[in-house]
Amino acid sequence: MLEQLQELDRELFLFLNNLGTKEWDWFWVMITEKEVSYPLYLILLILIYKKIKLRGLVITMLVVALMITFTDQLANFFKDSFERLRPCNEAFIEYGRYLAKRCGKYGYFSGHAISSFAVATLISSVLKPYYKNVFYWMFAWAILVTYSRIYVGVHYPGDIITGALMGIVTGFLFFKFHHYLMGKFNNDFKQKS
């Protein structure tokens, strides 16, 4: 059963990986780099500041930092535990495309996927009362980032799907933590006034 799932994952990887063309390679290589997300994060910080002010921004930044640390450690724990080679380390990659700067050894599950979907879930939940369509934009961005990992040849679809699901759950849990902190600090502030 596991071998059949892995074979299906390889076939799906080759299909999705080979959807690319040389004309689009630059775009997906760019999207896969973490730095390309910085302008989006800056815009989100501004939107958060405008709607929930400095205290809310500080709490949000703290929760995001804790969440990213958690997702990074969780992804690395799974990679080291499962030791599933990335597609770029497999012989069949010659039938696909490998465009990443480096390969890395293990890939189950994707750190980009868990962190992208965790951020999308948390931030869209924080901003949803103010910007009803933020959910669509955040998840579209997360999907672009995670597909880029298949396109450049460093993750299987199973790595991405697992990471995305783990990211959604993690983002929801950290949103609950964010909600708790916002209530606690707002109540403490009101009581001191």
Automatic annotation (TrEMBL):
Q: Name one Pfam family in it.
A: PAP2
| Entry protein name | Undecaprenyl-diphosphatase
| The organism's place on the tree of life at top rank | Bacteria
Annotated ranges, domain Phosphatidic acid phosphatase type 2/haloperoxidase: 60-175
SMART domains assigned to the protein according to its UniProt record, in alphabetical order: acidPPc
Q: Which residues cross the membrane?
A: 26-49, 56-75, 106-127, 134-154, 160-182
Gene3D superfamilies in the record: Phosphatidic acid phosphatase type 2/haloperoxidase
Query: Is Manganese a UniProt keyword of this protein?
Result: no
Keyword Transmembrane helix assigned: yes
Kindly state which keywords UniProt assigns to this record, in alphabetical order. Membrane, Transmembrane, Transmembrane helix
Whose protein is this, by species?
Psychroflexus sediminis
